[in-house]
Amino acid sequence: MQASDTGVPYTGVTSQDPTENPHVMLRIVVTTLLLCLMAPLMAADIETGVPILDAAFGQLQDRNFDTKAEGVTALAASGHPQASELLRGLRDGDLRYLKDNNRLVWMRDQAGDTAAIDVLNGENYGTFGSRSFRKLAINNAMRGQIDALLAQRQLTDPDPAVRLAAVDAMLGNSEPAHAEMFARLLTTEKDPAVREAMQNAASLARLSDPDPQTRRKAIANVADSLEPVVRNGLTRLANNDPNDAVRADAAAALQKINDRAALYGHLETLFFGLSLGSVLVLAAIGLAITFGVMGVINMAHGELIMLGAYTTYLIQLALPDMTGLSILLAVPAAFLVSGTVGVAIERGVIRFLYGRPLETLLATFGISLMLQQLVRTLISPQNVPVSNPDFLSGSWQINSVLSLTYNRLYIFVFCLLVFAGLFFVLKRTRLGLQVRAVSQNRAMARAMGVRSARVDALTFGLGSGIAGIAGVALSQLTNVGPNLGQAYIVDSFMVVVFGGVGNLWGTLVGGLGLGIANKLMEPWAGAVLAKILVLVFIILFIQKRPRGLFPQKGRAAEG
Predict the structure, then answer these.
(1) What's the confidence (pLDDT) of residue 15?
(2) pTM: predicted TM-score of the whole model, two decimal places
C-alpha cells in the first residue's frame, strides 16, 4: 500500500468536490425534487379538538382512496351534529385545512380575499392566499358515496318530499346492505310515493346480492320500474351475470321496460304534436274569420300576431317585477291593440277592395311590410326578450321518461278556451248572428236592417284581436322579433284551407291534426322534410276535396 505525501494511507478513492461529479449532482437534484414533491403529502394531522373527527379526517388525508372512503363512512357515522355539513363541504370542495395550524376551515370570499373560518367554532383566522389552504382530495366514486350517505341521513325527515329525494339520491349508489335498511324503513313509512320508491330501491340493492335466487326476485320486483339506474342494473345483469337464469330474467325485464319507455315516448310525441297544433290553431283561428267568413286574403295577419307579442313585451317592461300579472294583462291588451289596428286596416283599405281578392292581397302585403318597419323603428330591429312567469316554467314530471312542459300544456288549454269563447260569440251573440247573416247574403242582411259596414269592421277587428291573443301565447314559446308573423302566415292559411274555409271546427281539427302529423314524421324525416310532406299532403287533399274537411253548407257555400 502506498502512502500519500501527507502520511495518510492511500485507499484508491480520490476525494473531489461533488459539484465536479455529474452523477453525484444528478442524485442530489433528484433527491431534492422528490423531497419537494413529498412535502405536501407529509402534512401534519388535522386537529379539530374532537377525537372521532380527527380520526376520520386522518383517514381522509391518506393517499389511498379506499382508506379515504373509510374516512367518509366514519365521518357520517360519527354522530357529530355538523357531520352532514362537513360531508357537503368535502363533496363541494369548500372544506379545507390551514397549513399554519392544521385546523379545518371554510374558504369564504371576504372583500376580494379568501377568509378561513373554523368549521366548528366559527372563528375567523384571517385572510390567506390560496397556497395556505390544503384540499382533501376525493374522486367521483367518493362523491357518489357522500351523496348516498347524506341521503341516508334524510330518510327519516318529517317531510315526505325530502325522504323521496333522499331515496332517489341513493338509487345510483345502491348496495346489498341498503336492502335491509329500506326494509326496516318500509315498516313505518306511510307516504305511498315514498313507499314505492323505497321498494324499488330495496329491489335495486338486491340486484347485487350474491344469491342468484335473490337477484331473480329483485328482477321481478323492478320489472315495472322506468328509472334509468334500474335499466342500467338490468343491462349489467343481462350482459355479465354468471347465472344463465338471471341473465334471461334480466333480458326479459329489460325488454318489457324498453317497450313501456317506447310507449311513453310516443305519448310525448303526441303531446308535442298537440302543442304545435294548438299554436297553429291560435295563429289560424283569427284568419278563419277574416278569410273564411269575410273572404278577405289578409297577408298582414302575421303582423297582427306580432303586435300581440310586442304588446306582451311592453307590458313586461312596465311591470318588470310582476311577470305573471303582466302575462294576464297582456291578453286583453293584445286583443285591443291588434283589434284596433285590424279595424283601422278594414276601414282605411279593405272596405274599398271587397270582391277584388288580388288587390286585397297586394294591399295587405304592403301593410305587413309597413308594420314590420314600424316595429323596427319604434322598438328594435333585433329580437326582444319576453320572460316566462313561474307558472309557465318547468315541467310536469309524470315518470322518469315522460315530462310535459308547463308552457305548452297551458297554451294547449288556452287554445281550447279561446276557441270556445270565439265559438260562443259567433253562435250565441247578436254580433255572431249578424256576422253569419252578412257572410251568407249581404244584400238580404242589409234589407233586414243590418249595418253591414259596421259588421265588417267588427268582424275584421274580432279576427285581428284573436291574432293578437295568439301573439301573447307565441311570446312564451319563441323569439319575439319583427319577422315573427312571417313564420306563421303560410301555416295559418294551410290550416284554414285544410279544415274548411269559414268553419271553426275545421280550423280546430285541421290545426291539431297537422301539428300531430308534423311531429310524428319529424323523428324519421327531419323538421324541414316533415313540413314539406305536410304541404304536399294538403295539396293532394285539396285536389280531392277543394272545400276542406268541413265544407260550409247553404248559401255561404254556394257563394
Answers:
(1) 43
(2) 0.67
